[in-house]
Design brief:
Length: 273
């Protein structure tokens, strides 16, 4: 019984000593101080982070503004450049229109002068810019009259007027004054423009369809070898060169190298003035 009573007997609470209380109080103050310092450090670190973040935001915004301003300046420069190019093109168009109007007026004046000064039967081709083109087509194949005048010798056998020997005349002779305009009968390429013993100054024009036209006894040629010519274009002036007894034009037509009768392509009255 006594042992059980001892076990159940409460042991009275002892107060800590003053030394322990002082030591506990000092430790408590130290822990509070450390906690305060840690809080201060955390706050300072947070403030620094916020400041750095603000600066980075300001830097990025400044860079964005610079990029936007640069881009806008480039766009403005491009826009101004495009406007200048447009204005220059408009000025060029206005100048070209004025030049075309002037050329048309000059062309009309030249057409009137040529029509009054040359043969009344030679019409100017208004659809062609070349002033030397005459509209003298006589059939659907567009054979142009090379020169108007009296036909003094036809295609076929004849007596040579200079040698009095019989020979085959590969063309027709059209009498005309010297320096009368001679026009291309067909469009093509000048195969030969020069001098020969028989025809004197002559021109040969080869067409794409196999036809070749010859113009002989010329006083002066206006075209060169290899030059492209159009039907009705002024190519020469008639004369009296080569084997000739008077001023006239020898006109011949060849098909794949074989002489053709020009009167198969024209009527005799086509050459009358």
């Amino acid at each position: 019984m006594e042992s059980e009573i001892k076990k159940n007997k409460r042991i009275p609470h002892r107060k800590p000593s003053r030394r322990y209380q002082k030591m506990y109080a000092s430790e408590n103050k130290m822990s509070k101080r450390i906690a305060f310092q840690l809080c201060v450090c955390v706050i300072l670190i947070g403030i620094l982070l916020v400041i750095s973040h603000i600066k980075s935001i300001q830097y990025v915004s400044a860079e964005i503004k610079n990029a936007i301003s640069t881009d806008m300046s480039e766009k403005q420069a491009q826009y101004i450049k495009n406007e200048i190019v447009t204005i220059v093109e408009k000025i060029k168009n206005v100048k070209s229109k004025k030049a075309n109007i002037t050329d048309k007026k000059t062309y009309n004046i030249t057409k009137t002068d040529n029509k009054n000064s040359k043969n009344s039967n030679i019409e100017n081709n208004e659809d062609n810019e070349d002033k030397n083109i005459s509209k003298q087509s006589v059939n659907t194949d567009l054979w142009y009259i090379p020169l108007k005048g009296i036909i003094t010798s036809f295609f076929g056998e004849r007596e040579n007027p200079t040698s009095e020997n019989t020979q085959f005349h590969e063309g027709i002779d059209i009498a005309a004054d010297e320096n009368t305009d001679v026009y291309a009968a067909r469009s093509g390429t000048v195969e030969f423009s020069g001098y020969s013993k028989s025809y004197g100054n002559e021109i040969k024009i080869e067409s794409d369809d196999g036809y070749e036209t010859l113009y002989g006894h010329l006083n002066k040629s206006c075209v060169k070898d290899g030059e492209k010519v159009k039907a009705g274009q002024l190519i020469a002036y008639s004369g009296n060169t080569g084997d000739s007894t008077g001023p006239h034009l020898h006109f011949g037509i060849y098909k794949n190298g074989t002489a053709e009768n020009p009167m198969d392509f024209y009527k005799e009255n086509d050459f009358e003035n």
